[in-house]
Amino acid sequence: MFDFRILKKSKKSGARLGVIKTSSGDIETPAFIGVATQATVKTLESKEVLETGTQALICNTFHLHLKPGEDIVAKNGGLHKFMNWSGPLMTDSGGYQIFSLGFGRDYGTGKILKEKRDEKITAGHQPRNIKIADDGVWFISPIDGKNVFIGPKESIQIQEKLGADIIFAFDECPSPIADYEYNKTALRKTHPWAKICLDTKKSKQALYGIVQGGKFKDLRMESAKFIEALPFEGFGIGGEFGNSKSSMEKMLGWVIKELPEEKPRHLLGIGQLEDIPKIIRQGVDTFDCTIPTHYARHGYAFTSHGKLDMNKSKFLRDKNILDKNCDCYVCQEHTRSYLSHLMRAREITALKLLTFHNLHFFNKMVEKVRREIENGKI
Questions:
Q1: Region label for 47, one of left (φ > 0), alpha (ψ between -120 and 50) or beta (otherwise)
Q2: Three-state SS string across 227-250, please?
Q3: In 233-339, which ranges are E strands?
Q4: Does residue 92 contact residue 133 with C-beta atoms inside 8 Å?
Q5: Which are the catalytic amino acids?
Q6: DSSP SS3 for 378
Q7: Could you list the residue range(s) of the whole structural domain that residue 46 is in?
Q8: Which residues, at least 6 apart from 323, have a Cβ–Cβ distance to it below 8 Å?
Q9: Are residues 274 and 319 both part of a single domain?
Q10: pTM of this prediction?
Q11: How far apart are CA 320 and CA 361, in angstroms?
Q12: CB–CB of 223/236 below 8 Å?
C-alpha cells in the first residue's frame, strides 16, 4: 500500500502539509528521515529511535548488499523484522556510492562544495577505484577488495529482498566539480537506468525516480521532465548542489516546478539545520541527512542556542542542561557537565545520549515547521 495526500498548501511559499501512507504506517510531511545506514541508527535501538519522534528511516542498499547480504536480511523476514523497526522504511539505490567511493573520495569533496575548486571532471573521466559503465558500476568492496557489480537490475533486486516500503531507482550521482559534458553524459546513463528499474520491479514497494543534472539548469529541467513522465510513485532529488546554499535553493526551484504536485518529493542527503526551512519552503516533502547523528558521535549537540561542542573543558563546569527548551529525556536528566565528562573520558554513553538528543531536536524543529505551515506562517 502506498498513497500520498496533500492536506494543505502554503500561500506564502511552495511548502505543503501532507501524509504518505505505507503498509508500515504513515509519514506526516514535511518529515526528516533518519539515516540507518547498516540497518541501525548508530548507538540507538530501534525503539529509542521511535522515541526521538523519527517517523521513518532510510537504509543503505550498497552497504547492506556487502554485509550481511540481502539474502540474509530476506531470510530474517526483511529489514523491518531484521532491525525490529515498526515504521516506514526507505532504501537508497546505491547510486550515491558511485560518488562517495569514486570522485568524492578522489577529490575529497561532498555534495556541496565548501570552497571553489579549480579541478574539473570531464566527460570520459573515470574514478580511480570504481568503473562506471553504460550498464552499471563496478565497485571494489571496501571489505575484502573483491569486484562488485551493481546496475539498475541488481539495485532493484537487492532492494526487493531488503523489503523497504519505498525504494529508489539506480542513478549516477555526479561530483560538484563535474563539468557540463560530464553531467550530460551521466544523464544518458541515469535515464535509461530509470526505465530498467521500472521494468525490473516485481514487488509492491513504492519506487521513486531520481532527478539529476548537477548545477546546470537545462540538464536539471530535462531530467525532471524525463523522470516525471515515467510511472514512479514519487521522486528523489539527488546529486550535487553547487557552491552555496543559495544555489541549492535555486536548483530545487527548477526541479520542483517540473514535478507533478500530487506525488511526494524526497531530497537525498541534505539537511543541515539551517537548510530545513529553506528546502521545505521550496516544496520538499521528505529529506534524509546524517548531520544529527554524525555530529553527535563527534560530541556536538544542537540546541536552540546554537551548536555546542561538548568536548570543550568549559562545559565541565556547566551544571545547566543542554537546552532548557528541549523536553527530551537527555535534557531532563543530564547536565552539560556530565555530558562533557563522558565525551572527554571517551565513554560511549555520551554518543548515545547526544544522538538521542540531536534526533529529537531535529524532529521537533520539523514538527514546528509543520505547525507554521498549518497556521499560514510559512
A1: alpha
A2: HHCCCCCEEEECCCCCCCHHHHHH
A3: 234-237, 265-267, 286-288, 300-303, 306-309
A4: no
A5: 92, 288
A6: coil
A7: 2-289
A8: 301, 303, 304, 305, 331, 357, 361
A9: no
A10: 0.96
A11: 17
A12: no
Domains held by the chain: number: 2
Task: Look up residue 343 and give its three cell numbers.
Answer: 565525551
Whether the CB-CB separation of 210 and 93 falls below 8 Å is answered with yes
Using alpha carbons only, how large is the chain's radius of gyration in Å?
A: 20
The three three-digit cell numbers of residue 237, written as one number:
532529488
Length of the chain: 378
Percent of the chain with pLDDT over 70: 99
Q: In this structure, is the dihedral angle defined by the CA atoms of residues 74, 78, 81 and 82, taken in order, positive or negative?
A: positive
In this structure, what C-alpha cell is assigned to residue 115? 570552497
Buried b (16+ CB within 10 A) or exposed e, 13-41: ebbbbbbbebebebbebbbbbbbbbebbb
Give the list of residues 6+ apart from residue 54 with CB closer than 8 angstroms, or none.
Answer: 32, 33, 34, 41, 87, 359, 363
Closest CA to 34 of 356, 311, 265, 283: 356
Buried b (16+ CB within 10 A) or exposed e, 195-230: ebbbebbeeebbbbbbbbbbbbeebbbbbbebbbee
149 and 55 co-located in one domain: yes
The last residue of a domain, from among 264, 289, 314: 289
Query: Is 296 inside a domain boundary?
Result: no
pLDDT digits (tens, 9 = 90+) for 17-66: 999 999 999 999 999 999 999 999 999 999 999 999 999 999 999 999 99
Report angle CA 276, 176, 251 to the nearest 5 degrees: 45
